[in-house]
Amino acid sequence: MNNDKRREIFRRLQAANPEPTTELAWSTPFELLVAVALSAQSTDVGVNKATARLFPVASTPQGIVDLGLEGVKEVIKTLGLYNNKARNLVAMCELLLRDHDGEVPRTRAGLEALPGVGRKTANVILNTAFGEPTIAVDTHIFRVSNRTHLAPGKNVDQVEQKLLKVVPRDYKRDAHHWLILHGRYTCVARKPRCGSCVIEDLCEYREKTEPA
């Protein structure tokens, strides 16, 4: 795929959705950090239901610590892996209070030092909370990047590095959201909805589906 095609892909995605954002519910960088940390192997809908119970009683690191491990478990027990998530969340909040005065760090190193926070989560926080041009590659973005040939790679790290290289600079900040939403609703895993895809003619996928 050449750069002209890539630019046109993002031009169309932007035209269809000028201000894309996460579907997780949040109002502060800390709430976003919690939501993303809870989202592993869970849907955004499920996470939003859990945080709708959690944030009214604990929306700060001190609030989480005060709620305690068992209290956090009780609130988020509808989520998969909730025991591990609760432990990481409490440990993360203790570290935020100890080393960052309760504030979410604005650096990758600071974020990735937090319990339960890896590169993907750090990328989401840097991008969505702080406006950095990072691209967090999840299963949707990995699939879209490979299927369309936008930025093929054998693993998420390769796809991330390729996207950072080939996405035009003026589209880079929102690229994560456009691609994840495209993968979630149009370029779905089992049978992509090629007939309703705004970039169907630019996509280099060989097994396109017929319109419904």
Automatic annotation (TrEMBL):
<dbReference type="GO" id="GO:0003677">
    <property type="term" value="F:DNA binding"/>
</dbReference>
<dbReference type="Pfam" id="PF10576">
    <property type="entry name" value="EndIII_4Fe-2S"/>
</dbReference>
<dbReference type="InterPro" id="IPR004035">
    <property type="entry name" value="Endouclease-III_FeS-bd_BS"/>
</dbReference>
<dbReference type="Pfam" id="PF00633">
    <property type="entry name" value="HHH"/>
</dbReference>
<keyword id="KW-0479">Metal-binding</keyword>
<comment type="function">
    <text>DNA repair enzyme that has both DNA N-glycosylase activity and AP-lyase activity. The DNA N-glycosylase activity releases various damaged pyrimidines from DNA by cleaving the N-glycosidic bond, leaving an AP (apurinic/apyrimidinic) site. The AP-lyase activity cleaves the phosphodiester bond 3' to the AP site by a beta-elimination, leaving a 3'-terminal unsaturated sugar and a product with a terminal 5'-phosphate.</text>
</comment>
<keyword id="KW-0408">Iron</keyword>
<keyword id="KW-0540">Nuclease</keyword>
<dbReference type="GO" id="GO:0006285">
    <property type="term" value="P:base-excision repair, AP site formation"/>
</dbReference>
<keyword id="KW-0456">Lyase</keyword>
<dbReference type="InterPro" id="IPR003651">
    <property type="entry name" value="Endonuclease3_FeS-loop_motif"/>
</dbReference>
<dbReference type="InterPro" id="IPR011257">
    <property type="entry name" value="DNA_glycosylase"/>
</dbReference>
<dbReference type="InterPro" id="IPR005759">
    <property type="entry name" value="Nth"/>
</dbReference>
<comment type="similarity">
    <text>Belongs to the Nth/MutY family.</text>
</comment>
<dbReference type="GO" id="GO:0140078">
    <property type="term" value="F:class I DNA-(apurinic or apyrimidinic site) endonuclease activity"/>
</dbReference>
<keyword id="KW-0234">DNA repair</keyword>
<dbReference type="GO" id="GO:0019104">
    <property type="term" value="F:DNA N-glycosylase activity"/>
</dbReference>
<keyword id="KW-0378">Hydrolase</keyword>
<keyword id="KW-0238">DNA-binding</keyword>
<dbReference type="InterPro" id="IPR023170">
    <property type="entry name" value="HhH_base_excis_C"/>
</dbReference>
<keyword id="KW-0004">4Fe-4S</keyword>
<feature type="domain" description="HhH-GPD">
    <location>
        <begin position="38"/>
        <end position="185"/>
    </location>
</feature>
<feature type="binding site">
    <location>
        <position position="197"/>
    </location>
    <ligand>
        <name>[4Fe-4S] cluster</name>
    </ligand>
</feature>
<dbReference type="GO" id="GO:0046872">
    <property type="term" value="F:metal ion binding"/>
</dbReference>
<dbReference type="Pfam" id="PF00730">
    <property type="entry name" value="HhH-GPD"/>
</dbReference>
<keyword id="KW-0227">DNA damage</keyword>
<dbReference type="InterPro" id="IPR000445">
    <property type="entry name" value="HhH_motif"/>
</dbReference>
<dbReference type="GO" id="GO:0051539">
    <property type="term" value="F:4 iron, 4 sulfur cluster binding"/>
</dbReference>
<protein>
    <recommendedName>
        <fullName>Endonuclease III</fullName>
        <ecNumber>4.2.99.18</ecNumber>
    </recommendedName>
</protein>
<keyword id="KW-0326">Glycosidase</keyword>
<feature type="binding site">
    <location>
        <position position="194"/>
    </location>
    <ligand>
        <name>[4Fe-4S] cluster</name>
    </ligand>
</feature>
<dbReference type="InterPro" id="IPR003265">
    <property type="entry name" value="HhH-GPD_domain"/>
</dbReference>
<keyword id="KW-0411">Iron-sulfur</keyword>
<feature type="binding site">
    <location>
        <position position="187"/>
    </location>
    <ligand>
        <name>[4Fe-4S] cluster</name>
    </ligand>
</feature>
<dbReference type="InterPro" id="IPR004036">
    <property type="entry name" value="Endonuclease-III-like_CS2"/>
</dbReference>
<feature type="binding site">
    <location>
        <position position="203"/>
    </location>
    <ligand>
        <name>[4Fe-4S] cluster</name>
    </ligand>
</feature>
<keyword id="KW-0255">Endonuclease</keyword>
